[in-house]
Amino acid sequence: MDNKESIRDMIEKKRSSTNLTSVTEKVMPKFLLAIATISILTTLGIVITLLTETINFFKDVPFLDFYTGTILNPLGDDAQFGVLPLLTGTIYSTVIAMFVAIPVGLMAAIFLSEYASDKVRRILKPILEILAGIPTIVYGFFAYTFVTPLLRSFIPALDPTNILSPGIVMGIMIIPMVASLSEDAMSSVPNSMREGALALGSTKLEVTWKVVIPAAISGVIASFVLGISRAIGETMIVAIASGSNKDFTFDLTQSMQTMTAYIVEVTGGEAPAGSTIYYSLYAVAMTLFVFTLIMNLVAQYISRKYREEY
Predict the structure, then answer these.
(1) 268 lies in which domain range?
(2) Helix or strand or coil: residue 73?
(3) Against a cut of 0.90, is the pTM above it?
């Protein structure tokens, strides 16, 4: 009798467990869908907010005047809103950053992937990635208090705030992204390709440049494009070290303002809600959003077009 009751209890427990599993299987997909929907709705909310306020801005300022104007004087009596000075500062800082990040990051990735032993790689890669965890405001003060005085000892004409110093420091900040993603792409190349090239008499350097990098080119280029996107959207470094000069200039030794730095400056100042300068924040933010979106789409296109699966 005890055995029969025991078996009956086991059947009941199994049945209740099955019912619970069935309920969980039905609920979890809906829960996960709700979580995914939140991220989509958040993105839509951001885009709608930017579009709505940007349209209000272009009711007061002509579209062509904004994107072709070289004078940005939002607080003057005769306020002018030309975004070209901000675009110039953003592009200059990004180009300088990538001139630093691409060669250094790529060389670091080549060393970690092709030359370093497993022990060395396990030590150096986490150390390199620590750079990505440093707050950007620390990088900003580093650029302002160390890099700029150092550069001024070589370039006396360099302004105390300039676009060269933050550009270099942004490049240092982006190195881990370029190095890590490029190294992952190179490490995914099968060893059989390396061994085949070595068997044909190629040197280690020839294997790296003529076999490994071409095979991993999609991941390498994607790391470059993502690094550019990161540089375009950087805020604190340029806000601290590049100054707030809104003149349209191509002189790297002078102070320039980027789009992100302009948003920080105007947001922290007096910009009454509903005023033209208030709406200009959204127009600049929309321009920045489009820039970053384009770079991300380019990265995805390159990754899909040149992807090689092994």
Answers:
(1) 72-306
(2) strand
(3) no
